[in-house]
Amino acid sequence: MHAMFKTSLASAAMLIAVAASAAPPPPGRLLASNCFQCHGTNGAGPGFDNLAGKSARSIFEAMKEMQAGKEGEDIMSKHSRGYTDDQLQLLAEWLSLQSPVQQARTAGPSSLPTSR
Ligand code: HEC
To answer: What pLDDT is recorded for position 89?
Structure first.
């Protein structure tokens, strides 16, 4: 076997070992990570509406309304349609348990404008 190939096989095995030993993130966080791009890491801004620490019920209901096209603009109606009710429940519960502190720390003149 070629030495270089052996080396890369060894590093691949190490990477797999590292990945396997890390605890997987909770499913609610995995599902909600799609939201961080626009609503900030963990939904705590800066960005559009702060989601962290809101009640799970209000997040879930807003998502259902946006799914039905009753509320929200195009961006959110499309994003909300990618989830089943069970997935929305999981991500809403996870977001409700997050601290909204990030918003207070980083919001400032450079925070993104909201649509309202
Ligand atoms: C591409 C950007 C983008 C992504 C990604 C995104 N959002 Fe939004 N979100 C917005 C914008 C813009 C608004 C405000 C306009 C509107 O209501 O449609 C909004 C509004 C909302 C609101 C409404 C708040 C209120 O009380 O009216 C909720 C709830 C929400 N988003 C949840 C989520 C969740 C949960 C995810 C992840 C599944 C997500 N968003 C992903 C851009 C985004």
So the answer is: 97
Fold of 25-105: Cytochrome Bc1 Complex; Chain D, domain 2 (1.10.760)
Closest to 77 (Cα-Cα) out of 63, 87, 90, 56: 63
pLDDT, tens digit, 9 for 90 and up, residues 35-84: 999 999 999 998 899 999 999 999 999 999 999 987 767 899 999 999 99
Question: Around 83, how many Cα atoms within 13 Å sit in the side-chain half-sphere?
Answer: 26
Testing ligand 1's pocket by substitution, the residue of 39, 111, 116 carrying the most ligand atoms inside 8 A of its CB is 39
Q: How far apart are CA 65 and CA 62, in angstroms?
A: 5
